[in-house]
Structures are given as C-alpha cells and as structure tokens.
Amino acid sequence: MFFTSYEFLGFVGVLFLVYYLVPKKVQWMLLLAASWIFYAAADPRFLIYILATTVTIYFTARIIERDQERQTAYLREHKAEMDRDGKKSYKESRHRVRFRWLLLGLLINLGILATLKYANFFISNVNGIMNAFGGTERLSFVTLVLPMGISFYTFQALGYLIDVYRGTVPAEKNFFRFALFVSFFPQLVQGPISRFDDLSRTLYAEHVFDARTVSFGLQRMLWGYFKKMVIADRILPALSCIIDAPGEYHGAYAFVGMLFYTVQLYADFTGGIDITIGIAQVLGIRLQENFETPYFSMSLKEYWRRWHITMGTWFKDYLFYPISICKPMQKISKFSRNHLGKKIGMRLPVYLSSFVVWFATGFWHGASWNFVVWGLANYFVLMISEELEPLYGRFHKRFRFSNTRLYNIFQVARTFLLISVLKMFDCYSDIGTTFRMFGSMFTAKNWNILWNGALLELGITAGDYGVLAAGAVLFVIIGILHRRGGVRERIAARPYPVRAVVWSVLFLAVLLFGAYGIGYDASQFIYNRF
Amino acid sequence: MEDLLEILKELHPEVDFETEQHLVDDEILDSFDIVTLIAEIQDVFDVTIDAKRILPENFNSAKALYALIQEIEEED
C-alpha cells in the first residue's frame, strides 16, 4: 500500500472520516491501529521487527527513568547523612547502571538494523577480502526481510531512548502510546525523524475538526503528489535510460542525467515528505519540517542545514556533539594544542567527529561503499570550505559585488552544481562508474545531443519535457514565495474563485500529467529504501 | 563573565556578545563553534559540559551560557 496507490488514498480517506467521528479520547488508538494495519499490509513480518524495537526501547527507557527516580528519592532520604563526595560517588554508580541499560537498548536495536540491512554487505566484503588473498571459499548470502523505513523508526526510537537517559524527556508510561510514537504510519515511509518532546505534544492530543487545518493538510498532500507524480515519476524513464547504460550514455548524457537525478530526488523526497506532513496535518498533528528550500542554498554547509533536516540534527545531537566533547576527544584536543598549536588543537575534535558523522551518514543511506564515498566526499568539501572561510571573508570584504543579487544567484547555481556532482555517487551505484561518468563530462564531444533531438529518445516525449520545465519553474516560484512567507496562507487570503482555480488546476495537473501506466513506476520513493 | 566574553570574542570578533540574544537561532554560532566553545570553557572554568546541555536556550546568549557554567559549578 504505497502513498501513490488507490488503496492508500482509500485508506487515508476512511481514516480521516472515522478519526473525526470517534470520541476524541480514542483518536490516538485509532491511529495506532491504522499504523499497524498500514505496516502489516506492506508485509506482516515487518510488524515483528517494529514491535521488537518498540518493546525493547519502551522497557529500557522505563528502567532508566525508574532508576533516576530511585536515585532522587534515595538522595532526598539520606540528605543529612551523605557528604558531597558520598553523593557524587553514589550518583556516579547509578549513572553507570543507567548507561549500561542505554547501551543494551542501543546494541539490540542497532544490532537488528545492522543484521537486516548490512549482513550481505559484510558478507560480500569478507568474500572480496578472501578472494584477494587467493581463497576459494565463499560465504553465502543470507535472505533477510528489510522492514520498510527501518532506519527511520530505529533512529527515532533511539533518539527517544537517549533523551530519556539524558533526562530531557520523561519516559512514556503507556506502552501503546509509545508504540504509536514509533510506528505513526505517515512517517514510516521516509521520515521525518521526529523527537519525542516535539511529536508527543500533538500525537496524543485530542483533535477537533478544524476546516482550515484540514484543508491546509489536503493542499500540502496535493502539492506532494504533484511533485512525486508529475515531476519525479515523469523524469524517471529518462534518468533510468541514462544511468542503466553508462557505456552508451556518457559525456553530455552524464551531465543531463546528473541534473535529472538532482531534480528527481528533490521532487521525490520532498514530495513524499509533503504528503507525510499533509496527512499528519489533516489529523491535526504537527510534524517537523524536513526541508527549507535546500536548492536555494549558497553553500554546501547551508544546504545541509536545509536538506533532510531531521536526519542532520539527529546526527548532530546524538553523534557529533557526544563524540566531539567526550573525554578522549578532549585529551586529543589538549595534546594537539600543546604540540601542534592552538588552532589545530581546537579544530581537531570537530574534524575527527565530523569524519565519523559523515561516514555514518553515508552508511545510513545504504549498505554499499558508494554511499560511504558520497558521505566522505561531502565531508571533504565541507572541511575544505571551512578552512577557506577566512579567505572567503577577505574576498567578500574586498570585492563589493559579492553582496549583490547577481553574485548570490551565482552562489546558488554553483552550490546546485556541486550538490549534483556529489549526488552522482548515490545515482550510479558503482564508484568507478561515477568517476568515469564525471570525467567523461570534461572530455565529451557529444554536447550536440542537447539540441539535436537525441534527448527525445530517452523514453520521454517533448510534451514530458514541457511538463517538467513548467514544473521546474513552478518549484522556483513556490520556493521564492515560501521564503517570503507561507504560500498556502497567501492563497487562503485570496477570494474564493482564485483559491478554487489554484487548487483545481493543481488537482487536474496531478490527474492529467501524473505519470501513470507502462514505463512509470509510481510506487516507490527513493528514500523508502534507506 | 569577562573570561567568557573574551572566549566568545576570539571566536567571532564581529559579534556584540553583550547584547546578542539569538546566537544559535540566528545561526551566528554553528555546531563547530559550539564544540570549540565548550573546549575553551572547560579549560578556563574547569567545568564539564555534557551533550545534554547543548540546547539552543543555553547557547543563545553570553548571559545564558554564563548561567549554565554557574549552574554546573554549583552542581559539582
């Protein structure tokens, strides 16, 4: 039951109706039932895995919180008889116990994720190493189920566990309410990765039907379907044609394919998130935004603050900060400050932790080396930019044109191209092919394909290109309007006929220009496989 | 407070840390700055700032950051 299937539309349609008809107290229970039905409809075996995560995280978080409560009570009771050192050593001993429970929760769930997602990657690498040393033995691959959205729900649940351990959120007492937090169905496809303190505020609340909220939610869904079905899926045949035959489609084709992929990934992922956030909004639930006009960024650093925001902040809060300020890292920093100078000593923790984060980010995206290389390529560009920042500063001070709109447009275009090049590692799953295709752009002699009609032989017609061009222009206009304030709010402030025309045109565009039928795969989302 | 302002000034000489109230929200301090800042604070004030304290409200102004340092000192 994919977002783009008729079954799914029927499913959410019925849910929206029933949700506002049942007593408000049971709304969250209905959502849990709907979420489990949605997940089981994809594959009943998926439920076992999501329940394993729910149960283990629920209990470890409860144990950790109970220990914290016991510690507080004990300290209160023995306040008079304990001195400062006694209190400190008691706190440290309890802290160690809680840390062990945290570790258990992390290991079980990362273990499940690693086994299901990375077992065959590990086996293929072991086989490769054995082969390199002349071994003839080969480990056989294992057939495992990979539950939909496992990376998303595992990270969401782990974030909650770490927050409980840190004492920043209370552990949820009701198992079923917690189960809803882990398995809220719109998020299961491709995130966003929510935080418990943020989502729990609206997820369990009683929601009264509000026409404006519901219509805004439906509008957001419609915009998401437009992005996914009119743009992302329409461009897909041409993209597949180029990517699947790099021997034939190189040089200028690789350049076109690179741009197609950048547009397709944007339309696919942000479209999916629009549908997700829209569904939640119809239900009165506010999900965190995952994108903030990322392709308008003027640097890669800015892009990563605007693209897949919830994943970025997850890695920052739960991996980057803990590693950069942990005691061993502080020791490394101190040592390098004393021996290599203050500047290097200050930067070393940041650079080392960033390396780990980008390695993990790459690996999180998929069990394949091309994702790791993609992550590390981002890392190197970011670190080089960081080092060059003083130089940029001097350049901007010296040359006044660097503050002009034209220069800003140049920066946006430059960043867009850079992002597109980096995404090639994700697009071509083979690292060697990626480098070959990138290199072929510089030696290409086939740039005439851009005007000789060859692009019409990639499986999409001139009409398709027209729709795509119109869609791209619309993205830019909506992006600019979004930066200046809410687009839907602006439309809502217009007279009824204007509103009716805008939304009807968008609805008709999805119906008429949505990619259906042979050659189109209006089912999967790219980020669904992560 | 003077020591803290000195650390902050060294990081971003162009910012008026005595008045600025949205250092994190306005992206004046990024994650790299925060890590550098924590290392410096730990050195100068001899306090340990753990990851759970890295919240925008603790780093949005010099005043908030100084209050955090004092809070940790009292806890220790």
Précis, in short:
Chain A contains 20 helices and no strands.
Alpha-carbon distance between the two ends of chain A: 18 Å
Gyration radius over CA of chain A: 26 Å
Radius of gyration based on Cα positions of chain B: 11 Å
The CATH C-level name of chain B is Mainly Alpha
Under the CATH scheme, which architecture of chain B would be assigned?
Orthogonal Bundle
- Encode the helix/strand succession of chain B as letters: HHHH
Counting helices, strands and paired strands, the structural category of chain A is mainly alpha
Main interface by residue count: A-B, 21 and 18 residues
* Helical segment count of chain A: 20
CATH fold descriptor of chain B: Non-ribosomal Peptide Synthetase Peptidyl Carrier Protein, Chain A
Largest sheet of chain A: none
**Shape annotation of chain A:** globular
Q: Any low-confidence stretches of chain B, pLDDT <50, length ≥5?
A: none
| Count of the domains of chain B | 1
Largest sheet of chain B: none
Spatial shape of chain B: globular
Present the secondary structure layout.
The complex is a heterodimer of chains A (530) and B (76).
Chain A: H1 6-21, H2 27-42, H3 44-77, H4 84-132, H5 150-166, H6 175-183, H7 185-188, H8 196-203, H9 211-244, H10 252-282, H11 300-306, H12 309-324, H13 327-340, H14 342-365, H15 369-398, H16 405-427, H17 431-443, H18 462-483, H19 487-492, H20 496-513
Chain B: H1 2-11, H2 31-45, H3 56-59, H4 62-75
Helix pairs in contact in B: 1-2
Description:
The complex is a heterodimer of chains A (530) and B (76). With 530 residues, chain A is mainly alpha-helical. Chain A is 74% helix and 0% strand. In chain A, α2 crosses α3 and α14 packs across α15. Chain A is globular, with a radius of gyration of 26 Å. In chain A, 36% of the residues are buried. Mean pLDDT of chain A is 91; it is low at 518-522. Chain B is 57% helix and 0% strand. Chain B is built from four helices and no strands. Chain B has helices at 2-11, 31-45, 56-59, 62-75. In chain B, α1 (2-11) runs antiparallel to α2. The mean pLDDT of chain B is 89. Classes of the chains: A mainly alpha (530), B mainly alpha (76).
